[in-house]
């Protein structure tokens, strides 16, 4: 409080006149407060009140701090900044004291909290907070819960998810308007208001006096601090400064709100009380400061475009009596007035009675003359002005949180909502001007979603404050600012305006907060009904929607490629979806029942009016302008969707809401234009417009947009088609698709509007569109569940899908409140009906799959619908993919072997209202087209494809399925104007027209066409027909023109106008002048009917004459039950047969005619042609077949080669491992190893000057150090109590041991007594491929020059193996000579062990006894040195240097043999920790120990061990008693031999020998070391057991000491060891700590034997592995219990004659080189010498833990939520903040910050640092917020994937879906396996550099 005291607090209240009395203390404050409280509690409290006012005036004087703030910069510079802060702090202290009325503030808080009727949670959160949403419990889709309430409620089995809040939100627990009460948590379940006592009056009395002043003071600060930004200079800096200064005040208010309901209601009173506000802020007082602040306030109002009225005007409006405050209606009415709806002048008078008398005027539209639009509104309470400033300051987070924290108070909620609505227009203006519109949008929505999600509140505000008018007008006004003239249709004269999609407003989605509020309130039925009933609103809204009609117009580029591809289409699609479609879906969700028919009529009426206005505005008659397309027709879609709803749900008569024919014709044009443009875009006709046009075509059909765009468009076209003349419709379609000219019987034609290369795909497009139009039933009678099923089947047929991608791909209603919610019951039930779940599979090393759903067989069989698939594919390749899968299914199930055609699927029945649609199938125009196309296909005209035929047949079949019953009626009705058609077909029924023969057709053809040059039809008929190669029907074409002329007449009743718009005239405009040859007329002889064409097609397709034979002639049954499965799947032949059968079924005439045609057996086309074609197709098939066979053969050969290559490559360690066995001793031939170089391809031995090397990857590894001696797995900590302590790991134990030794013994000797490399050891692995070292160098050079971004860094020596692309970073030279040491060395020698021991010693004594050449510098030795350098550099210095004297040679020596140890130990772990499996394992394949040994041995020999110290001496000779050790005290002694690690000794001995090593020497070394090991086991056993056991054993063993086998009896040896060691102090000092050591078990002979064997096994395993690598001997496999005996015999420890009948005894392997008792006593003597002084340590060093369990990663909990909840809020230990990206190490459980700057050390971020400390460069981290695992390997990292999957077997990266996740044990095992086997680099492909930034 020093600062406060210095700032001179007001002391007693006795001297009000003194400006600032003497510094008071906190105590005085309390006294003053108590005194005032007492004064105020009196009945007559005026004096007290005045006193308090005066005190507050002084304390809260607004001048001081803000003056400081205004001169903030100078003050801060002068160091005076503290003054202001201190004064404010002081003011706050005073307030706290006064509120508490003399007591302690904390006690006061507690007292108030006790009165909190906590029925609502209301916790407010800001962005990035993790909250939950439960759809099962939510009433409003925006419902959300904080984690605490969620976990305390019961949501088992509900459809919930966790999400990261984007804009912030508040917890709805306890609010039954928003969620069902069943979901409330335990705290908010009870409506506790009843039993909460009343708040005592005096508790909050002070607050009622103090808070108004406090809040006024805050408002003054805000007024003072606000300066209008100078011209276009953003003043964010200044605003933020003011806000920072106010931080403590606002926080204080926020804390008050958290005190609970009692305090909130006081605050509500203060904030909404109008009297208080009036008294304090009128600015009429004498106080200059108050005046100044009032002026600033007025300036701020002015600058916001809000005029402050003259005083007389203000008082002119009488003060309203009604208290309900409403937004000035006349303002908005006026705005709408300008739109020509309401006269606003009389609005104004009525308004007075409604509320705010004096108001600011919100200026809405600049072009208006009407003054009343200037909206008058004046703030009347603190709340209103606070909100005003909140908006002015662009919604500071603190203020928003304070305002929201108050919401649990109901009275406040209503007042605040009204205030918010009142400021809505102002909010929009501020938003438009804001530079931070994103942040601001989020804050706005944060508030509005809390207010408008509540239906009751929304309804109230709608009724009292004109909420809907305000919203619609504000949206309209917002969009008005970015309108441009539409260029659609008639560019010059267009009156239509559209939004400009390039404007920031649309590009940045600035409008979304307003639109989202609008959608939110429309989701409430009561509000939506008001909207749908209000005609004025509907008109305004349609006006708004029409701004989007035709936006983002595309014009086809015809000459050069567009320079700049605009990306505005994103904005356009987003705007249509959000601003038009979502409100539409919201409204539709309330039009579900008959009673709502009126609403639909209203919408449809105003929609049609708007459309009519639009057609007029763009000057549209009947021809769309060429080469233009817009994908945005929201008015059409509103109309379509409301029509669909009307028929489907409201039983409205469709015709009653349809316009006249002319309007229908106009309506269909633009949607049809889009369909044709889609075909053009896919035919690459828009290629010059760039990629974005393809993007638009794809977005239009994409799952989130399709049901708001393409579906309504197609539905609208279906409606038009069902009501318009079918011939007109069909001809319009072919015209729009520009293929009219192609539809001619002639073989050649000209197309004036289309290039030849696009013709085929456009024709396919037109036919496909017709098929979709006629077969789609989405809006024509399918129920919601059928639709869902059809959508799901279509998606599953394209590809197997994950559950989440299905949810995403199935178009759901974009408005969240409607219809089928994804994940709802129907979704799951349909899914289980149509699909099977394929659980994720794991191939180790394969990609990780997710759980997939795949269609059931019966779905392929009966429900596969190609039409739906075509409609829903974004990429054309998906259609192919669906067909391929269908084909595969048919082959697999044996239903059809060949290439099937898309199956014909039966449709759901049409709704009666749309029956007219089927007339399209029965109109002559379509029949002519079908006939023409069949003929052209039969004649092989060009530009026709199988796809065309497929669609033609599909249309014929649709026609047969939907034919009218009576043929005669049809005929009767068609007479009169149809006469001109008689040359084609008699009637319009397809069934009868099929049999109608057409003899001659007149066609217009180019003069060059073959038809013209005919002499006599008879003579050359065969040739001329054969050469018909091309196509076009002038007859059909002229017919189209006729048809349109007639229609025009019908509609326009004025021929003059009709003639202007006849089509042929316009077509001339596009033909290139002079290019076309003249057309002449020719007559073709046809003589075919559709039936005869079909039969000939059958012949053609099957390639056989007379292939069709009517099936009913054999089996009359077929005609009775026609549904024949045989026809349901198949190719074109099947389709033709199916159609003919249906035609025969429908009419006896057809049946007869088919039979006749078949009898005549007309050759389909002249025979010559047929045979040629036939031959061609047959040849083609045969050739294909042969090619396929050849390919198979090649592939098989390749596969076998590859296989053999893999086998040889992998066994490079022992390519001739069988040979040595075969060569008999008589022929001592030495085979030299041959290597293949994978770069130059030559093979040969490795030589001195051109050495070969193995491709290897060196990596530092701490996996070994993670072994533990404890079987209980380590768990990841998930509570504060759980902690992981690393002291039981292998690495820790070894570290402790080494440092203990180094404390008491000579350093150089310590470094030979242990191995290092448990942490940071170097592991060497190879892919098995070899290369010449010089080849490798040039390969590296080429990589260096290659600028391609590689995933590895060449400068660090990294590369990928040129053959198998495995990651590598070094090359290990192969030692010349044979790879497997040749057999001379392997013959067992008969020397006795003594001689061998001598030889070993001599060989070790010879320094550098290498082949001479190597000691001189050769290429090989250079390479060996460089690889040794690489090995050293692989690991960090701290893992290499353990010596006390840095850089001592002993250290290098230790490092080198430890590398060998690390590799052996790791291989053992890869084999599962034992050698029971025997043989070579996969681990063996990667191993390159043999070559590594040579390199290490070469370097070890450079350091000769002083023969004095060579442990070999101590092992094999008795040393005379020299008291050297005890003698010189000051020098530290050598490490006693019993403390040595035997495996290390083994490696030292072997690496000190000249290579190649002889087998008998090896065995000799092993035998000698085994004796030491066994003695160590006995010593450890003697230390472990209790005093009694020891004396007993000592006794029993002594008795047998003189038996013959004494040296091989463990009992004797143990007793001897005990007696020897008893001479020292080892067993003394038993004491208390001994209890821990004593194992409770009694030792039986069996358990002793087992202990001894377990002690020795690790050594035997490592030795056997070493022998396997050095001498190429196979490892025997065995059972676990006999592992010891098998390995010891394999190593030659067991005498060969040893029989294994009686139980095996480990001691029988002993072979003492010198008398056992002598050498043991010598060894024990050293120990006794040490334990004299350090008995404790001596004992600890003897007990070595040798039985390490395999390393494992931490065990993870079943449910991911347990990890997430604990870690995502856990604070960082360095900066105590919650990290943005927390992660946890899965090896040791350390909590780290990913990319956290707080934990950065010397430019290394924490994860990278930890990966070096914990895993020597390898780190495995679980990213808490993403549920993914990230691997760091050295300088690279990769995302590995997730081990947590949801119930559907999918990952949820970044927790986007927030569904519950469960551990996937298989994946975790794969991860662990890759960690242990060090294969991250090989298996994971996507690596990138992390630049130490993780």
Describe this structure in words.
46% of the residues are buried. Helix 11 runs parallel beside helix 19, helix 24 packs antiparallel against helix 26 and helix 43 runs antiparallel to helix 44. The longest helix has 44 residues. It contains 80 helices and 30 strands.
Topology readout:
Layout lengths: L1 H5 L19 H16 L4 H14 L3 H8 L1 H6 L3 H20 L4 H9 L10 E2 L4 E5 L10 E2 H6 L7 E5 L4 E2 L15 H4 L11 H25 L10 H22 L3 H12 L1 H8 L6 H16 L2 E2 L3 H6 L12 H10 L6 H7 L9 E2 L19 H11 L4 H9 L4 H13 L1 H10 L3 H16 L2 H11 L1 H14 L2 E3 L11 E3 L4 H4 L4 H11 L2 H9 L1 H12 L7 E2 L12 H21 L8 H21 L10 E2 L4 H16 L11 H22 L8 H11 L8 H14 L2 H11 L19 H20 L8 H15 L4 H7 L15 H10 E4 L13 E4 L1 H7 L2 H7 L3 H18 L30 H15 L7 H16 L5 H7 L16 H4 L4 E9 L14 H6 L7 H19 L2 H6 L2 H8 L8 E10 L1 H13 L14 H4 L11 H15 L1 H13 L6 H44 L8 H4 L12 E2 L6 E2 L7 E10 L28 H15 L2 H7 L7 E12 H13 L13 E2 L6 E2 ...
Antiparallel strand pairs: 1-5, 2-3, 2-4, 6-7, 8-9, 10-11, 12-13, 14-15, 16-17, 18-19, 18-22, 20-21, 23-24, 23-25, 25-26, 26-27, 27-30, 28-29
Helix pairs in contact: 2-3, 2-6, 3-10, 4-6, 6-7, 6-10, 6-11, 10-11, 10-12, 10-18, 11-19, 16-17, 19-22, 21-22, 21-24, 22-26, 24-26, 24-28, 26-29, 28-30, 29-31, 30-31, 31-34, 32-34, 32-36, 35-48, 36-44, 37-39, 37-41, 43-44, 43-51, 44-53, 51-53, 53-54, 60-69, 62-65, 63-65, 63-68, 63-73, 68-69, ...
């Amino acid at each position: 409080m020093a600062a406060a005291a210095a700032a001179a607090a007001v002391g007693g209240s006795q001297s009000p006149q003194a400006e600032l009395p003497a510094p008071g203390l906190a105590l005085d404050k309390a006294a003053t407060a108590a005194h005032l409280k007492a004064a105020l509690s009196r009945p007559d409290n005026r004096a007290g009140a005045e006193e308090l006012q005066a005190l507050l005036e002084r304390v809260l004087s607004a001048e001081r701090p803000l003056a400081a703030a205004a001169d903030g910069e100078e003050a801060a510079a002068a160091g005076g900044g503290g003054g202001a802060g201190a004064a404010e702090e002081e003011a706050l202290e005073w307030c706290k004291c006064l509120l508490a009325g003399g007591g302690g503030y904390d006690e006061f808080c507690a007292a108030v909290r006790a009165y909190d009727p906590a029925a609502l949670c209301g916790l407010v959160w800001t962005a990035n907070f993790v909250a939950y949403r439960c759809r099962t419990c939510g009433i409003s889709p925006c419902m959300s819960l904080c984690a605490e309430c969620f976990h305390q409620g019961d949501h088992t089995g509900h459809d919930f998810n966790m999400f990261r809040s984007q804009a912030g939100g508040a917890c709805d627990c306890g609010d039954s308007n928003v969620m069902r009460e069943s979901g409330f948590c335990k705290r908010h379940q009870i409506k506790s208001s009843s039993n909460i006592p009343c708040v005592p009056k005096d508790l909050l009395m002070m607050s009622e006096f103090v808070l108004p002043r406090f809040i006024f003071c805050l408002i003054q600060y805000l007024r003072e601090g606000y300066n209008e930004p100078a011209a276009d200079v953003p003043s964010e800096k200044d605003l933020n400064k003011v806000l920072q200064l106010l931080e403590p005040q606002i926080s204080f208010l926020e804390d008050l709100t958290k005190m609970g309901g009692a305090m909130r209601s006081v605050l509500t009173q203060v904030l909404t009380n109008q009297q208080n506000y009036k008294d304090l802020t009128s600015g009429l007082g004498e106080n200059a400061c108050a005046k100044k602040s009032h002026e600033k306030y007025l300036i701020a109002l002015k600058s916001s475009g809000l005029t402050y009225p003259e005083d007389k005007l203000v008082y002119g409006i009488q003060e309203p009596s009604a208290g309900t405050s409403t937004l000035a209606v006349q303002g908005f009415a006026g705005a709408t007035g300008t739109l020509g709806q309401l006269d606003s002048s009389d609005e104004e008078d009525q308004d007075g009675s409604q509320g705010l008398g004096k108001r600011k005027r919100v200026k809405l539209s600049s072009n208006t003359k009407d003054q009343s639009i200037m909206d008058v509104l004046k703030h009347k309470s603190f709340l209103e002005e606070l909100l005003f400033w909140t908006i002015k300051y662009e919604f500071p987070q603190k203020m928003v949180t304070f305002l929201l924290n108050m919401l649990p108070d109901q009275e406040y909620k209503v007042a605040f909502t009204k205030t918010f609505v009142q400021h809505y227009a102002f909010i929009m203006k501020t938003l438009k001007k804001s530079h931070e519109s994103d942040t601001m949008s989020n804050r706005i929505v944060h508030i509005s979603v809390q207010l408008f999600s509540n239906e009751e509140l929304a309804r109230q505000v709608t009724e009292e404050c004109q909420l809907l008018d305000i919203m619609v007008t504000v949206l309209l006004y917002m969009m008005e600012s970015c309108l441009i003239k539409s260029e659609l249709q008639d560019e010059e004269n267009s009156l239509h305006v559209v939004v400009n999609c390039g404007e920031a407003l649309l590009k940045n989605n600035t409008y979304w907060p307003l639109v989202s509020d609008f959608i939110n309130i429309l989701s409430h039925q009561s509000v939506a009904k008001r909207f749908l009933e209000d005609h004025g609103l509907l008109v305004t809204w349609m006006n708004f929607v029409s701004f989007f009609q035709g936006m983002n117009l595309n014009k086809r580029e015809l000459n050069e490629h567009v320079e700049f591809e605009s990306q505005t289409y994103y904005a356009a699609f987003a705007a249509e979806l959000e601003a038009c479609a979502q409100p539409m879906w919201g409204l539709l969700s309330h039009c579900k029942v008959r009673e709502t028919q009126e609403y639909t009529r209203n919408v449809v009426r105003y929609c049609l009016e708007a459309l009519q206005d639009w057609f007029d505005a763009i000057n549209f008659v009947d021809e769309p302008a060429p080469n233009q397309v817009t994908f945005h027709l929201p008015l059409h879609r509103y109309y379509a969707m409301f029509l669909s709803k009307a028929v489907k749900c409201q039983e409205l008569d469709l015709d009653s809401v349809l316009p006249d024919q002319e309007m229908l014709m106009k309506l269909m044009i633009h949607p049809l234009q889009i369909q044709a443009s889609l075909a053009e875009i896919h035919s690459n006709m828009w290629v010059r417009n760039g990629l974005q046009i393809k993007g638009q075509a794809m977005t239009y059909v994409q799952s989130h947009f399709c049901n708001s765009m393409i579906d309504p468009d197609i539905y609208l076209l279906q409606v038009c088609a069902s009501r318009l003349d079918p011939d007109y419709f069909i001809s319009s379609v072919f015209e729009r698709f520009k293929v009219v000219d192609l539809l001619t019987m002639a073989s050649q034609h000209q197309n004036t509007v289309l290039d030849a290369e696009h013709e085929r795909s456009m024709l396919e497009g037109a036919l496909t569109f017709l098929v979709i139009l006629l077969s789609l039933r989405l809006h024509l009678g399918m129920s919601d569940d059928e639709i869902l099923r059809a959508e799901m089947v279509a998606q599953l047929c394209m590809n197997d899908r994950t559950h989440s991608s299905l949810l995403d791909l199935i178009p759901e209603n974009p408005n969240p409140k409607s219809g089928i919610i994804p994940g709802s019951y129907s979704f799951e039930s349909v899914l289980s009906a149509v699909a099977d779940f394929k659980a994720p599979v794991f191939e180790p090393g394969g990609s990780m799959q997710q759980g997939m759903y795949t269609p059931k067989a019966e779905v392929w069989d009966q429900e596969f619908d190609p039409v739906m698939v075509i409609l829903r594919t974004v990429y054309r390749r998906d259609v192919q993919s669906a067909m391929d899968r269908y084909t595969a299914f048919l082959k697999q199930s044996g239903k059809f072997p060949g290439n099937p055609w898309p199956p014909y699927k039966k449709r759901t029945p049409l709704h009666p209202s749309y029956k007219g649609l089927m007339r399209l199938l029965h109109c002559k125009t379509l029949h002519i087209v079908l006939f023409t196309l069949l003929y052209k296909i039969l004649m092989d005209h060009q530009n026709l494809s199988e796809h065309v035929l497929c669609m033609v047949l599909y249309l014929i079949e649709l026609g047969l399925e939907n034919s009218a019953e009576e043929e005669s009626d049809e005929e009767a009705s068609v007479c009169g104007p149809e006469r001109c058609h008689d040359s084609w077909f008699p009637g319009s029924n397809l069934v009868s027209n099929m049999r109608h023969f057409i003899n001659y057709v007149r066609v217009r053809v180019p003069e060059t066409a073959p038809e013209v040059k005919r002499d006599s039809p008879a003579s050359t008929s065969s040739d001329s027909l054969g050469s018909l190669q091309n196509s076009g029907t002038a007859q059909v074409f002229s017919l189209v023109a006729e048809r349109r002329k007639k229609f025009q007449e019908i509609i326009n009743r004025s021929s003059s106008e009709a003639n202007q718009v006849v089509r042929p005239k316009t077509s001339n405009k596009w033909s290139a002048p002079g290019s076309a040859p003249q057309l002449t007329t020719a007559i073709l002889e046809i003589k075919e009917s559709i039936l005869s064409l079909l039969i000939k097609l059958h012949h053609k397709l099957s390639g056989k004459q007379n292939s069709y034979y009517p099936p009913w002639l054999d089996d009359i049954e077929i005609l009775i039950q026609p549904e024949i499965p045989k026809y349901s799947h198949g190719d074109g032949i099947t389709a033709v047969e199916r159609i003919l059968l249906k035609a025969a079924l429908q009419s006896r005439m057809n049946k007869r005619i088919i039979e006749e045609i078949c009898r005549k057996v007309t050759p389909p086309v002249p025979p010559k042609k047929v045979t040629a074609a036939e031959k061609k197709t047959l040849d083609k098939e045969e050739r294909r077949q042969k090619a396929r066979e050849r390919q198979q053969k090649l592939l098989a050969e390749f596969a076998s080669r590859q296989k053999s290559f893999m086998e040889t490559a992998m066994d490079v360690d022992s390519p001739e491992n069988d040979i040595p066995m075969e060569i008999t001793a008589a022929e001592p031939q030495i085979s030299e190893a041959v290597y293949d170089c994978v770069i130059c391809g030559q093979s040969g031995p490795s030589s001195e000057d051109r050495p070969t090397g193995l491709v290897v990857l060196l990596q530092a590894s701490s996996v070994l150090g993670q072994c533990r001696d404890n079987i209980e797995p380590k768990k990841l900590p998930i509570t504060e109590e759980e902690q992981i302590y690393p002291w039981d790991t292998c690495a820790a134990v070894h570290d402790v041991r080494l440092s203990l030794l180094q404390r008491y013994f000579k350093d150089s000797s310590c470094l030979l007594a242990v191995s290092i490399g448990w942490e940071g050891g170097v592991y060497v692995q190879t892919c098995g491929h070899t290369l010449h070292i010089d080849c490798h160098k040039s390969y590296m050079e080429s990589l260096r020059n290659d600028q391609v971004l590689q995933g590895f860094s060449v400068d660090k020596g990294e590369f990928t193996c040129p053959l198998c692309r495995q990651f590598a970073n070094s090359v290990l030279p192969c030692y010349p000579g044979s790879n497997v040491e040749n057999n001379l060395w392997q013959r067992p020698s008969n020397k006795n062990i003594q001689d061998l021991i001598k030889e070993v010693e001599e060989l070790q004594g010879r320094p550098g006894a290498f082949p001479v050449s190597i000691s001189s510098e050769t290429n090989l030795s250079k390479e060996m040195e460089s690889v040794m350098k690489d090995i050293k550099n692989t690991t960090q210095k701290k893992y290499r240097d353990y010596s006390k004297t840095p850089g001592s040679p002993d250290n290098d020596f230790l490092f080198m043999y430890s590398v060998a140890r690390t590799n052996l130990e790791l291989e053992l772990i890869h084999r599962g920790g034992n050698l029971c499996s025997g043989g070579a394992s996969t681990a063996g394949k990667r191993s390159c120990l043999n070559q590594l040994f040579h390199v290490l041995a070469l370097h070890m020999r450079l350091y000769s061990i002083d023969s004095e110290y060579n442990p070999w001496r101590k092992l094999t000779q008795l040393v005379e008693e020299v008291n050297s050790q005890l003698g010189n005290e000051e020098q530290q002694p050598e490490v006693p031999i019993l403390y040595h690690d035997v495996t290390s000794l083994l490696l030292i001995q072997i690496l000190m020998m000249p290579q190649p090593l002889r087998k008998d020497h090896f065995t000799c070394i092993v035998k000698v070391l085994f004796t030491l090991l066994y003695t160590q086991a006995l010593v450890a056993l003697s230390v472990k057991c209790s005093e009694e056991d020891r004396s007993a054993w000592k006794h029993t063993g002594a008795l047998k000491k003189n038996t013959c086998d004494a040296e091989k009896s463990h009992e004797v040896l143990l007793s001897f060891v005990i007696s020897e060691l008893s001479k020292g102090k080892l067993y003394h000092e038993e004491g208390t700590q001994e209890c821990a050591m004593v194992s409770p078990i009694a030792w039986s002979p069996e358990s002793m034997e087992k202990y001894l064997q377990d002690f020795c096994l690790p050594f035997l395993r490592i030795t056997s592995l070493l022998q396997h690598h050095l001498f190429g001997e196979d490892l025997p496999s065995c059972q676990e219990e006999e592992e010891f005996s098998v390995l010891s015999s394999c190593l030659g420890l067991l005498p060969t004659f040893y029989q294994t009948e009686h139980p095996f005894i480990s001691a029988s392997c002993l072979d003492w080189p010198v008398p056992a008792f002598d050498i043991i006593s010598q060894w024990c003597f050293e120990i006794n010498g040490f334990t004299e002084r350090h008995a404790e340590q001596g004992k600890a060093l003897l007990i070595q833990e040798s039985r390490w369990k395999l390393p494992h990663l931490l065990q993870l909990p079943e449910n991911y939520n347990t990890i997430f909840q604990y870690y995502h809020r856990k604070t960082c230990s360095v900066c105590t903040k919650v990290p943005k990206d927390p992660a946890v190490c899965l090896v040791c459980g350390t909590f780290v910050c990913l990319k956290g700057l707080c934990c950065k050390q010397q430019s290394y971020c924490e994860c990278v640092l930890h990966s070096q400390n914990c895993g020597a460069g390898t780190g495995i981290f679980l990213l808490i917020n993403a549920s993914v695992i990230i691997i760091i390997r050295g300088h690279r990292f990769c995302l590995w994937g997730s081990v947590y999957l949801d119930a559907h077997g999918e990952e949820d990266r970044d927790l986007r879906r927030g569904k519950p996740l469960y551990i996937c044990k298989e994946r975790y095992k794969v991860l662990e396996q890759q960690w242990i086997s060090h294969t991250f680099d090989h298996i994971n492909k996507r690596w990138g550099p992390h630049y130490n930034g993780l």
